[in-house]
Amino acid sequence: MFSKRFLQFVFLLITGLLFTPSVNLAQSAIRLQQTDKMNTEFRFAKGLYTDGIYPAARDQLRQFLEKYKNSPHRAEAMYLLGESYFQTGQFERATDTFTRLLNSYPGLAYYERSLLRSGEAKYRSNDIHGALATFKEFNVRYPASKFLDQSLYWQGECYAKLGQKDLAVNSFTRLIKEFPQSSLNDYALYSIGWLYEQSGEIEKAFKIYKKLIDDYPKSDLTEDVSYYLGFTSFKAGRFQEAVRYLQRAIEAYPENNRTAEARFFIAESYYQAGDKQAAVENYQKVIKNFKESRWVDRSYYGIGWTYLEDKQYARAIAAFEFLITNQPDSPLLPKSLLHIGNCYTNLNDPGRARQTFQSLIDRFPGDSVAVQGRFELGVLDFKEKKYDEAEKIFNDIWQNNPEHPVRPRALFMAGEVALARQNLTQAAQYYRQVLDSYPGASVGADAGFRLGWCLLQQNKPAEAAKTFNNFLNKYKNHELKDQVLFWLAESEVQLEQYAAAGKHYQQLIQQYPSSQSLNGAYYSLGWIDLQQDHFSRAITNFNRALQHSANNKLKGEILLRKGDALFNQKSYRDAIGNYKNSQNFLTAEENKAEAAYRIGQCYYRLGEFDAAAAAFNNLILQFPQSHYVEDASIATGRAHFQAGQFEQAIRAFQNFIQKYPKSEFTDNVLYSIGDCYYNLGRYAEAIQSYEKMIRQFPKSPLLVDAVSGIQWSMIQKGETSAALAVTDSYSNLIKDSGTAAEFQKRKAELYVNMSQYDKAIEVYRKTMRDFPGSEEAKNSWYWIAEIYSKTKDDQLAEGALLHQITEFPRAKTSADALLQLGNRALDNQEFDTAIRYFQQLVKNFPQADFTPEAKYNIGYSFLEQDRLTEAENHFREMLNQKPTDPTIDYAQLGLARVAIARKSYVDAESYLDTITGNRNDKLAAEAQYLKGEILFDQEQFRQAALQYLRVKYIFPQYPYWVVRSVYNAALCYERLENKTEALKLYQSLQKNFPESKYAELANQHIKQITGR
To answer: Among 144, 277, 480, 905, which residue has the fewest nearby CB atoms (within 10 Å)?
Structure first.
């Protein structure tokens, strides 16, 4: 920490003070007693000391003290002996001498000087605690001493030696503060800077070194400290500044022994600053100009490492080989061999890489870098799929090198070997062991990610999610975070935690817009939407996934699932396009078969049965091993059936039975063959097919349908009596009351179709008596009400409906009964009664198909009573549903009616446009009708007529709205005085709806127009 020059300086300082003026201890009494010989010997010994001939002075003084034990020069001789010991490096003897002197002569005039020198001697003999105690004693005993600055300095050095940095800094700081003119202040500053540098407080060290140079430019420490400014700048990461300071130091003090080191750190600074060319140039200057320097091998190494980082592997190899050749004793040889091997690996030359790693192991078997070389051999084995060899190496490293830093990586690679062998359980064990044994290891993040992935593949999504969450908590900004977010979300999908999964997919998308997992995240969001019936949102996410998909396999899957979303939206034509496109990218045959099957289903739903049959046949031919073939074979027959191609349907069904004689669908196929024959009018063959099904599958759920088919076939043959007796002939097959009750229901239906209504009602009543717990019994009052409606016995029909909802309030048909009763009450303007029925329906049957209509009718009842606020609140409450819930469309229709009542026509039209844009059913027909009403109210009769007539042409299947719309359109033309068009429409009502009340109203208008 301090230079030899400084120690010489301190010695000369102290001795100069001690002997200026010369010590003159001779007393007159001594002169009388001292012989000339004693004086002569003392002067001789002292003269040797004064001339700096310390070994001779030491010997003469020792002889003098032994010979003249009572000499008046004894104290001075002891002091000079102590100094001689000190100057010849015999510090322990110097300490002993000074200690005897101080103990023997406590009143000595130069006791102060001896005490200080005693402390120095103890310091030099490494008795730091003793030295510190001496300096502390000095400071207390002589607080005003002119040597106090020296004592404070050495006290600071003692504290520094003992590792008590703060106390050392305090001592040096006190020295500088209390003795601003002390010649030791530059050394004190140097020591403070050195202490800060050693403790890692680099900025403080830099400032102290800078102050030393600024305040003491002529100090003999300036030269070294000029270099230290550069070194501390480097340590502080200020690399450009480091280059400037070190370059200045070299230029100012080119002969300094730190010049080579400075040039090396200039190279290192350029490397750290990213200027690799300048780094290499300065490494080369070290090698060229300082051939014997200890920085030469490091410079070769630096060149090699720079090229390695820059992926210039051939140049890196050359640099490392230069080091090995020219610096054969360098401690960097093992690392150089390791890097050469890694360079060969990166050059895809595993043979030379192996040779190099093996050379490292053979030449330096005990070096820790050799273990790293062995690890790299294991990695090569792993890459070459030599899993047994790789596993052996990794396990050996892990088991036999407990303190080696590569151990966690070896354990991790053992996990990679297990994973490559698809041994997920063993791989997970290795990865977990990395996390448990080495929580701070660099491979900890990779192990955590791999562990979570393995757990997920093992169908342990809860454990996987926990592992991935632990990763995110520990590694906030790790490069694998996007992957972890993706697989965490995948785990949550498996756990059906869709909200959490969606949150993590969105986090991935927002934080990592360039992630390779982006397409997977969008795909999975779409899949979640698909599961939750959010089909429009699913399509949007699938489209985004396609935009980010470079992976053809995933692209095919995305197109396939987008097709599913479109299918569920009933956008069958668009779905077909996506299914067909997906087949261009899908690789798995089963997925291609699925797409082919969905194409057939789409055509079937579109009513394009020929195309559907062709699609199903194409699947059967292209993918004969697919599990979809069985379904496609049946679907082919059904498509032909729906197309009225009954002969082809029969052949398809018969082929199915031949191919799948033990299929679970055989009973269904036999029944369908019977239906084909029935539709062909080949009733005997139909009966044979139905009977065959009954014989082979007496427990089939289609048993009752087959018996019914036999009955209808017999009726078509004119065998009515035999048809009625069929049920009894199969009574032996009826094993449970449910089936027996269903037989009774079919018998009643047969009577209804034969217009024998009384007998049908009696069968229903008998069903309720004989099978009171059956579903047929629970619904019988409803079917009786249907019969009374046919015979126009409205009071009896209403009574039967009331029986139905009272006796069997939870039966399936009670929902329909409540709807009919509510509608009857609406027609009779009994609005409160209607509301009660509809509310009961909503309460008892929240999932029924009629429930949205019932909710709408409640609001409509409020409207009819001019309770607009209640109606609006009711309809707005209906909006709180899933996007695909039909209740929302009913709510919008209701809000449109409220807006019309308030003459807020713009709002009303907005609601109605949404409905007609989304639907093509009865609700859309009503919405279209209301569009005409809005224009009629505003006396825009021409436009109103067109809107009304759209109902006739677009929704002809809903006569309730057609007849009203045609009538109102006629009124519009009448207001426009277009009597010709008005007459046409009124006459069409008489022709097409003669039983309607609007036919009578039309008749009245015709008379007014024609005057007849």
So the answer is: 144
In this structure, what token pair is assigned to residue 87?
């100057």
Whole-angstrom distance between the N-terminal and C-terminal Cα of the chain? 131
Q: Which two tokens stand for residue 310?
A: 């820059």
Type of residue found at 474: K
Give the CA distances from residue 610 to residues 220, 568, 629, 706, 971, in Å, rounded to whole numbers and listed in that order.
104, 22, 18, 27, 45
Write the pLDDT tens digit of every residue in 75-88: 899 999 999 999 99
Region label for 43, one of left (φ > 0), alpha (ψ between -120 and 50) or beta (otherwise): alpha
DSSP code, position 733:
G
Residue 402 has φ and ψ, to the nearest 5°, of: -60, -25
The DSSP result for 466-530, as a single string, is: HHHHHHHHH-TT-TTHHHHHHHHHHHHHHTT-HHHHHHHHHHHHHH-TT-TTHHHHHHHHHHHHH
pLDDT tens digits along 929-970: 999 999 999 999 999 999 999 998 888 999 999 999 999 999
Integer Cα distance of 556 and 550 in angstroms: 11
Query: Nearest-CA neighbor of 111 among 101, 124, 125?
Result: 101
Structure tokens at 222: 């300036």
Considering only the C-alpha atoms of the chain, give the largest distance between any 2 of them, rounded to a whole number of Å: 179
Cα–Cα distance list, 807 to 756, 800, 825, 839, 909 (Å): 26, 10, 20, 18, 44
The whole-number pLDDT of residue 974 equals 92
pLDDT band, very low/low/confident/very high, at 25 (cuts 50, 70, 90): very low
- For 776-796, the pLDDT digits (tens) are 899 999 999 999 999 889 899
Closest Cα to residue 278, out of 302, 255, 250?
Answer: 302
What's the burial of 24, exposed, middle or buried (CB within 10 Å: 0-12/13-18/19+)? exposed
pLDDT-derived band at 551, boundaries 50, 70, 90 = low
Q: Are 265 and 283 in contact (CB under 8 A)?
A: no
Per the structure block, which two tokens stand in for 656?
Answer: 């199915």
Pair of tokens at residue 638: 């059904």
Q: Give CA separation, 4 vs 215, 250, 659, 832, in Å.
A: 23, 22, 105, 113
Where in the chain are the domains?
516-587
How many of the other CB atoms lie within 10 Å of CB of 395?
17
Query: DSSP assignment, residue 731?
Result: G
> Does 1.25.40.10 match the CATH number of domain 516-587?
yes
Q: Are 804 and 782 in contact (CB under 8 A)?
A: yes
For 318, residues 6+ apart whose C-beta sits below 8 A from its C-beta are none
Among candidate residues 860, 872, 792, the one with its CA nearest the CA of residue 822 = 860
Q: Which residue has the higher pLDDT, 241 or 733?
A: 241
**What is the distance between the alpha carbons of residues 560 and 586, in angstroms, rounded to a whole number?**
9
Say what the pLDDT of residue 1012 is. 67
How many alpha carbons fall within 13 Å on the CB side of residue 264?
19
Question: Distance between CA atoms of 773 and 671, rounded to whole angstroms?
Answer: 28
Region 588-605 average pLDDT: 95
Q: In degrees, to the nearest 5, what angle opens at C-alpha 926 toward C-alphas 925 and 930?
A: 120
pLDDT at 1 over 70: no
- Pick the closest to residue 293 from 247, 321, 327 (CA basis): 327
Give the pLDDT band of residue 549 (cuts 50, 70, 90). confident
Whether 878 and 871 have beta carbons less than 8 Å apart is answered as no
pTM for the full predicted model: 0.64
Whole-number pLDDT of residue 107: 74
CB neighbour burial string for 98-122, b if at least 16 within 10 angstroms, e if fewer: bbebbeebeebebbbbbbbbbbbbb
Q: Is the pLDDT of residue 18 over 60?
A: no
* 304/312 Cα distance (integer angstroms): 9
